[in-house]
Design brief:
Helix content is about 45%, strand content about 15%. The chain is of the alpha/beta class and about 350 residues long. It is globular and about 70 Å long. The two termini are about 25 Å apart.
């Protein structure tokens, strides 16, 4: 039996799948049933289904949408070497003491040989591997910019639907272009360390401005007061009229210093978001952005299909290339042609 790649009217429930975890075929309907019963193996299979964009991915996300929106989603970002993974490891210990469940999406650089994640973060967090209430998934960027893998957002939603109380997203660690996390997380923690490489002047404005909380990790090293002063100076210039002034928490993963304070600060930030109705507005904005993103990709795919398979659309392109019409007129002509020709029924 093989995958069905042509599926009409979203008849995904009878689609049989196979994953690297098992050679046993199972329908998506059965897989979702196991997922809703809290089966970790089903969660892993569904994440693979989504990450690899296999048939049935859209069906899963549609069916689990109304089970999302309950988890606390925290994003951790910062330059390589600031200790993100170790810090997350210590924070997870605090969360688990409250008997709350955790999902971790650790975005790693992609291996140039296998195309998969290099799994460095999962190795560093291996002491949690036996805890059934912690689920760790490493994802390779696969060329995506912005510090996240292409399907990170959907994997977060699936962990949310699975019932995780906290979901922690660790970006890949380029340290300068990782603003995509703002479209996923409710609370963003930017991590710095007291050394010259992390000087505020070397950081791009974007990543500094997305922070809800600043962490100066490795605070047992020299220079911690200088980096704190630099952050405070930046905050005094940019955050004068805001109710939430991003706090600065000094931590040390090796000694556990400041981890309690970080945990409390994250919870205070959530209290602030809820009190001022910001959390709901953030969620609504994320959903709006997602609709527009999906619409953009679906329309782009539709146009590409016409360009690949339709002589009339390509003839318009040829007219532009021959300079018989301008590009704007050409684009409008193709747009009108697609709208007139396309049948937008459920069978398309």
């Amino acid at each position: 039996m093989h995958h069905k790649y042509t599926i009409s009217r979203y008849e995904y429930c009878n689609l049989s799948i196979n994953t690297k975890y098992s050679r046993e075929y199972i329908t998506l309907q059965d897989l979702l049933k196991e997922f809703r019963q809290g089966n970790r193996r089903a969660l892993a299979k569904i994440i693979s289904q989504i990450e690899n964009e296999r048939p049935g991915r859209e069906y899963i996300l549609k069916n689990e949408f109304h089970s999302t929106g309950k988890a606390k989603i925290i994003g951790f970002t910062g330059s390589p070497g600031v200790g993100k993974s170790s810090l997350i490891d210590n924070l997870v210990n605090k969360i688990r003491k409250n008997d709350e469940t955790v999902g971790i999406v650790a975005v790693d650089p992609t291996s140039p040989f296998t195309g998969g994640a290099l799994l460095g973060d999962r190795i560093r967090m291996q002491n949690h591997s036996l805890d059934k209430d912690i689920f760790i998934r490493s994802m390779g960027t696969r060329g995506s910019l912005g510090g996240l893998a292409r399907n990170s957002k959907d994997v977060v939603k699936i962990m949310d639907a699975f019932g995780k109380d906290w979901i922690i997203v660790e970006t890949v660690g380029v340290g300068q272009a990782e603003v995509d996390i703002i479209n996923i997380a409710d609370c963003i923690v930017v991590i710095l360390t007291p050394n010259a490489g992390d000087s505020i002047q070397t950081m791009k404005a974007g990543i500094m401005e997305i922070a809800d909380i600043f962490v100066v990790n490795k605070c047992d090293l020299p220079g911690v007061d200088r980096i704190v002063t630099e952050i405070e100076t930046m905050l005094s210039m940019h955050y004068k009229k805001q109710d939430w002034l991003p706090p600065i928490v000094k931590t040390s993963s090796s000694t556990d210093e400041g981890i309690d304070e970080l945990f409390q600060t994250i919870n205070k930030h959530y209290d602030y978001l809820q009190k001022h109705n910001i959390l709901k507005l953030k969620q609504q904005e994320k959903e709006k952005t997602e609709v527009l993103d999906i619409l953009h990709h679906q329309w782009k795919d539709l146009v590409q299909r016409y360009l690949d398979n339709n002589g009339s659309a390509n003839e318009v392109i040829n007219k532009v290339m021959r300079r018989e019409i301008d590009p704007y007129s050409g684009a409008s002509e193709i747009l009108k042609y697609i709208i007139k020709s396309e049948n937008f029924s459920d069978d398309t």
